[in-house]
């Protein structure tokens, strides 16, 4: 027999009838638990911007969004409100009020500045190595009329390559739009829009992949490899449905990294001092050749009997950490990197063609319209698909937001992953490499005159550079076959 509970019935009636009345009466304008203690100005903000503040940032909206002492200009002077207060240009006076240490940390952080990326490319095209090493980001400028190859390459960096930088809000594809400055990592975006005003002290992998996508390290951790750009090579064949391309171009699903399969997230290995500070990237030996007296104190493995375990910061799940016990590690460990034997596949796109076009005759280049840039896609579509006003061939400077004439296309001679490429690094250790500087840069001006044609790196520049693919797995029975050329080289020496 079912027991009749009048109290529950009354609650249901209240929910069905009273709640809608409250919504229709504009209850959001009334102070509640989420706005209590905030100024009248902030409550006014929240009447339109319905965001939920987290417990650590229950501060007046204008403290961050209208920094300064003069609040009398608000709300009439609403244009003075900062939409992106975490942008590097004002992070010191906004985020830095409470997070001065962190702001100072990132000021010299390579992950934040992308200094190594800029140095490698600019040096390859003739920049002074002594200057390139300390080149400030804002020095990388867009060039409407480049006079030298190096100026053309700087324009390429400013308007195409560095769109993942924290000065930029990313691209317009749903999975790659992100905040600027601190917000790039610490605020969540969904489908191209800010989805939560709850700040995350530890970014999730989705935040990392909003920059580390499209055949760059990070994407491979999840086994993703970008498809060829021409539509005949992309699957499923529904090219007009952009929801199938959250990262701009569809991707193959290859084998993910063994650590990803185990449930580890990016920040389990890439800790605060690496992502924000000056500490170098983590090494495999930190965990797999663990010594409590030698290894960085921030890495703490748990010992249970003869086994060591690592607890994921995301799930708390403990994972057994195998130690380097195979004889091959002692035999070859000083001559070969871990990736040389354990990488399952690598990015081998080469050569990379980068073409700037200032004119509006796009029919010959239509097949490159979907090359990972929403700016290129919009301009080409406006001319070829006749779906609206014709857009000028222009692309924005990712530091200033200024539109500059010309759009940059990207293409490749071939795209491969199956052969793991090896070479020696500066220390003579054989490691995995990718042809990251195997570039061809061209420019056709508004009069359809070729100003630079297949500009290549300077003579003597190594086109392939060491990198650490995040595609780790078992070395297998035939690991020696991969490194045999270098073993024979040693024997001949």
How is the biggest beta sheet arranged?
Answer: 4 strands, mixed
Distance between the termini: 90 Å
Q: Could you give the count of β-strands?
A: 16
Strand order of the largest sheet: 11-8-14-15
Count of DSSP H/I helices? 18
- How would you classify the helix and strand content by structural class? alpha+beta
Mean pLDDT: 84
Radius of gyration: 26 Å
Beta-strand fraction estimate: 5-15%
Helix fraction bin: 25-40%
Form type: globular
Keywords:
single chain; alpha+beta; disordered N terminus; 493 residues; 14% strand; 3-stranded antiparallel β-sheet
Give your account of this protein's structure.
- The chain has 493 residues and is α+β, with helices and mostly antiparallel strands.
- The chain has a domain at 6-83.
- It is 26% helix and 14% strand.
- It has 18 helices and 16 strands.
- The chain has helices spanning 6-24, 40-48, 61-65, 100-106, 110-113, 115-124, 129-132, 149-159, 183-186, 205-209, 258-261, 266-269, 272-275, 285-288, 327-332, 338-342, 374-384, 479-492, and strands spanning 188-190, 193-196, 224-226, 251-253, 302-304, 307-311, 318-320, 350-357, 394-396, 403-405, 407-414, 422-424, 430-434, 439-444, 450-455, 465-466.
- The strands form 6 sheets. It has a 4-stranded mixed beta sheet, covered by helices on one side.
- Strand 14 (439-444) and strand 15 (450-455) form a beta hairpin.
- The longest helix has 19 residues, at 6-24.
- It is globular.
